Amino acid sequence: MKVTFLGTGSALPTGERYQAGLLVSEDDRHLLLDCGSGVLQRLAASDVGYGGISAVLLSHLHLDHVSDLLPLLVARWIDDEPMPEVVGPEGTAAMVEGFFEAHGYLEGRFDVSVREITEESFEVAGFGVESRRTEHSIECFAYRFDDRFTFGADSEAVARLVRFADGSAVFVHECSFPDDVEVEGHTTPSVLGELLSDLEIEVGRVYLTHLFPHTEGREDDLLDSISEYYDGEVRVASDGLTVEIG
Prior knowledge:
By secondary structure, the protein is of the alpha/beta class. It contains 7 helices and 14 strands.
């Protein structure tokens, strides 16, 4: 399995990090996890391309996770490529229908298969996936791919989410702000480090993503804060980084 970080940023642009999106690939199976602004460009520049994915799995419906979904669908339509399945939480179908209502020239031009999920085990793009709710301002899901990869999506650092990743080779967790910024619905490094240590979970490597501009130039501070509590391997993700998972 390969996981490529297409976008590691947030709703606030930095010029360096696009909004949220990851590409999960294994053999000839390719799944897009979230589709924020800029992700379509990164996907087009990848070996897979925007025509190579068979499904888009959305963690939640905030704009920085879905803003390139309609452009992706339109690009596939113009290229006469089959539509990817779109899978996400309740409200995903209404959002996609709203795209067509807002852009009347698209109505009736192509059909999109939409599937809404909750906390469950399911299959998408040939991958077996398990979902768990996170602690965010709207309904949001973390996703686990067997014992190889867990995507924490947007969330406060909470025990149930960290436990969900136990045994994963790679755990992607957001770290939106440094410790000196007070936030709700997102994560700061010290809280994450304490949880990783206190719960004594076993993960091969942790990658930090969903980085707001407040973290620019302070990536080492994030890692230092976590390392005060947790001695496992933690890295800050960057756009274009590919992680191979055996």
